[in-house]
Amino acid sequence: MVDLPGLTKVPVHGQASDIEEQIRKLLLSFIQQPRALILALTAANQDLANSDALKLARQVDPNGERTIGVVTKIDLMDEGTNALEVLTGKVYPLKLGYYGVKCRSQLQINDNVPIS
């Protein structure tokens, strides 16, 4: 398992002006390998159609056969909304499916709300 950097758009703190292209090339060097599984992380409070991770994964895995979708920040979604259509693959199907990540808020931690 190799933890690669996330895609970035704007150079910060003395990063090279072409940091976006450098990271993109690094990511592609790993994920284009046919035996590599790709974890494509996308925030739940972002439209899936705007996912840079899924866009990059699609370039090397056009049929979604080795891409696993990870939907983060489910806890930050607006009340009354849910990620069910994304998590069930109805929005953008992946053969290996999607996994959701939901964190407890500080209030839930203080109130001893269990993780389960």
Strand order of the largest sheet: 1-2-3
Mean pLDDT: 92
Q: Secondary-structure element sequence?
A: HEHEHEH
Number of helices: 4
Can you give the helix content as a percent range? 25-40%
Category by helix and strand content: alpha/beta
Keywords:
single chain, 116 residues, alpha/beta
Would you write up a description of this structure?
This protein has helices spanning 19-31, 52-60, 84-87, 106-110; strands spanning 38-43, 67-72, 98-100. A three-stranded parallel sheet has the order 1-2-3, covered by helices on one side. Strand 2, helix 3 and strand 3 (98-100) form a beta-alpha-beta unit. With 116 residues, the chain is α/β, with parallel strands linked by helices. The longest helix is centred in the N-terminal third of the chain and has 13 residues, at 19-31. It has four helices and three strands; from the N terminus they run H-E-H-E-H-E-H. The protein starts with 18 loop residues before the first helix and ends in a 6-residue tail after the last helix.
Brief account:
The chain has helices at residues 19-31, 52-60, 84-87, 106-110; strands at residues 38-43, 67-72, 98-100.
Which SSEs are present, and which pair or pack?
Blueprint: H1 19-31, E1 38-43, H2 52-60, E2 67-72, H3 84-87, E3 98-100, H4 106-110
Parallel strand pairs: 1-2, 2-3
